[in-house]
Each structure stands twice: as C-alpha cells, then as structure tokens.
Design a protein that fits this description.
The chain has about 425 residues and is mainly alpha-helical. It has 2 domains: about 10-205, Up-down Bundle (Growth Hormone, Chain: A), CATH 1.20.1250; about 205-420, MFS general substrate transporter like domains (Growth Hormone, Chain: A). The chain has 15 helices and 2 strands. It has a two-stranded antiparallel ribbon.
Length: about 425
C-alpha cells in the first residue's frame, strides 16, 4: 500500500466505496422510482416533482450538515457520527421502498422521505472524508479515483440491478441496501478517527458552494460587466434541465410508450452512462487541445440531434420490421453519452476559469447553484410536457433546452473572451 505523510491509496479506495454505494443507490432510485410511483400516480409531472425532492432537500440541508460535521467533536471523529446514523438508515428504508409501495401511496411517500433524509445526513460527511485523508497535492488524483468508483456504481446500477429488477422488483433494493450497509461497515473500520488533513468541508461540497454563492454575491451577475458570465451559467442551467429530465423520465418513456420491459429500460439507459464514463477522459483531452467552449458547443449541437432521433426510431422499425429497436436505441444512447461527455466534462473547468485564480471558489459555487437548481425543476417540467404532448415530448423538450443553451453559451463565451474585466476592481468585487 502506497503511503505519503499518512496518505494511503487504500483509504481512498475505502472512502470511494462510500461514493460507489451512494451513486449506485441514487442512479437506481432515479431510474426506477418513477415507475414505482406510476403504480399510484398517472401524471408524469407529479412524479417528476417528487423526483426533484432529493435535490431540493440536498440544497437546503447538506450545507448545514456539512458545517455541523466540521465543528462536532466525538470519540469517533467528525464525520463518522453522521455516517453511522445515515448509511444504515438509508440502507433500511431503501430496502423498504418496494414493499411500502404494496401498501398505500402515503406509506410509500413516508418511506421515501425518510430515505431521502437519511441519504442527506451522510452525503456531506462521506464526501468530506476524502480531503480529510488527503494532502492538497494528492486531491486531484484521489478525486479522480472516487469519481471513477462513482461512475462504476452508476453502470452497475443500470446494468446489473436492472436485470435483478426483471426477476423481482424487490431484489435490487435488497442488494443495494446490503451494499450500503457493507460500505458503512467497511468505512467505519477503515477510516481514521482523527485524520491527518481534517479541515472544513466547505470547499468540497457542491451544495455548500451553491448556497454560499446564492447568499454571497449572486446579485453581482446583474452588472453589465458580468453579462457574458451570466449567459454561460444560464446555458448550464438550461442543458442540465434537458439532461436531468431525461435521466428521471427515460424509464417511464421506455416502459409506457415503447412497451419495453422495466429491467430492459434501465439497462438501455445504462449505455448512456457507460459511454460517458469511457469517453470522459478523452473528452477532457480534446477540450484542453481545442478549447472548452468550442467542444461544449459541438456537444450542444450533437446531443439534441440524437434526442430528436430517439422518438423517430419506432418509424424505422415500421420500414424495417426485422430491426432490433432496443439494440438501435442502445447504440443511439451510447452515441448520446459521448456527446454528453463533450459537454459536461468541459463545463466546470470553463466556469472555474471565469474568475481567475482569486475567484475560483465563487464561480465554483455558481456552477453548482445553476446546475443543481435545474435538477430540482427538470423532472417535473419534462414530465409536464409528457402529460400535455405525449411521451415523445420528453426528448423534443430536452433537445430544445440544449439548443437554447447553445446560443447562450456561444454568446456568453464570446462576450467573456472579448471583455477586459478587472475582477480585482473593488466596484466589481464578488
């Protein structure tokens, strides 16, 4: 095991197991909870609104919990008390979700709310474990490992757990609950009680960054000097509506409109995530060579074209009856995942660069604020379009958000590139 000044790659992989379990649970929840809700609620807008609750709860509570875990002092350290409460509770109520759905809608919603709260309790502390155990010069590497494990968790959720769902609706919930609990046990006996680099979680948590930006200078974006910056952030807000809406509503589209088997629907969505994980690093290299904004603009043209194509695939089967529509859809989604990598991999570095070295924290917060705000409204908004204009409206509506985002990003990046703003000017102080 490689160690440097108390730093251990073994501990990073142990911490990564917590992120693996978290991403596994969230990915499966986002894919299949709308189908479970559909047993009681016909409106896709209402189902989508419920699906947006997790992001709303996160924005409201995680900054508070992160700050609490920075200040608390216990015999088992700062983070483990929250993890000890949150992870086992989340595991238990995740297991209970399919069984509660067999009782009443209100029972299902009660179990769902407790699950969301439990996930919120431990999310900030488990993410803060990485910087607690990692010196600054190793954090990029450690973050890469943890994000890779999160990506693997998403793939496992959509490929492996989706197959279990086809056998019995409760099986993937049982397996995920077990993985959450085993991950908790692993973390509890692996991480240090008083890690060498323990500090504040403020710079590590998306929700904290978002809240800080909201309260500490969002109004500055109204100034004419920051018009280009604002346009770029609006572009991010818009295309995340399209992405988050498809992520939450795809299985509903596949099951209700294409009459696809529920397990096959989740597995098919997995090809989008698989492509993103495979092409994330190449997309980053391309962006570094060709420029972040131009590569994002390319993706913002390609992905809506792919989404518009998806509702037309049933017509292809009418012309060519022997074609495997599910296989074609999986290939199309895989190509879509490549386009998404071109967009999303560049987005945060582009925004972080807007403020220069002295304003990275502020613009990081703005990035998380705009991207997370879209995730709150997207499932309900795209679901409403499906209610009003039938299921294919999911992809047409999503494509529209990407196309509008293209024009905001193009205009914003051009304005930022040509402007000569001195961000150290006291009149523009953030």
């Amino acid at each position: 095991m490689t160690k440097t000044k108390g730093f251990s790659y073994g501990k990073i992989f142990a911490i990564g197991s917590g992120f693996f379990a978290l991403t596994l649970a969230w990915t499966f929840y986002n894919a299949y909870m709308p189908l479970i809700l559909g047993e009681y609620i016909e409106s896709r807008a209402i189902r989508g609104g419920i699906m947006g609750l997790d992001n709303l709860v996160a924005v409201l509570l995680i900054p508070f919990i992160g700050a609490w875990s920075d200040k608390i002092s216990t015999p088992i350290g700062k983070r483990l008390p929250f993890i000890t409460v949150g992870m086992p509770l989340a595991a238990l109520f995740f297991v209970l979700l399919p069984f509660s759905a067999e009782i009443t809608l209100w029972t299902l919603l009660a179990v769902d709310v407790i699950f969301l709260l439990a996930m919120t309790i431990y999310r900030a502390p488990v993410i803060a474990l990485m910087p607690d155990h990692t010196p600054i010069d190793k954090r990029s590497t450690a973050n890469g490992i943890i994000n890779l494990m999160g990506g693997v968790g998403a793939i496992v959720a959509l490929f492996c757990l989706s197959s279990l769902y086809g056998m019995d609706q409760s099986y993937p919930f049982l397996v995920t609950g077990l993985i959450l609990f085993l991950s908790f046990i692993f973390l509890y006996f692996t991480v240090d009680r008083n890690p060498a680099y323990v500090g504040s979680s403020e710079d590590e948590l998306e929700e904290v960054q978002a809240s800080k930006s909201f309260f500490q200078g969002l109004s500055k974006l109204k100034q004419p000097a920051f018009r280009g910056h604002l346009f770029i952030l609006i572009a991010i807000f818009l295309y995340f509506i399209g992405y988050a809406g498809v992520e939450a509503q795809f299985t509903t589209y596949a099951v209700e409109h294409l009459k696809m088997d529920e397990s096959a629907a989740g597995l098919t969505l997995g090809f989008f995530s698989l492509a993103f994980v495979i092409f994330a690093i190449p997309a980053g290299l391309i962006g570094s060579k060709r420029g972040k904004a131009p590569i994002m603009l390319l993706g913002l043209i390609l992905l809506p074209l792919i989404f518009i194509l998806i509702p037309l695939l049933p017509l292809l089967q009418g012309v060519m009856p022997s074609i495997n529509e599910t296989l074609v859809l999986q290939i199309v989604l895989f190509i879509g995942g490549i386009a998404w990598a071109l967009i999303n991999v560049q987005a945060y570095p582009l925004v972080a660069d807007l403020g220069g070295k002295d304003k990275i924290g502020f613009f990081t917060g703005l990035y998380y604020l705009f991207s997370m705000a879209s995730s709150i409204v997207a499932p309900g908004l795209l679901g409403l379009l499906m209610d009003l204009f039938t299921h294919p409206a999911l992809f047409f509506g999503s494509a529209l958000t990407f196309l509008i985002a293209f024009f905001f990003l193009k205009k914003g990046s051009s304005m930022v590139h040509t402007s000569k703003i001195d961000l150290n000017d006291d009149s523009l102080k953030l």
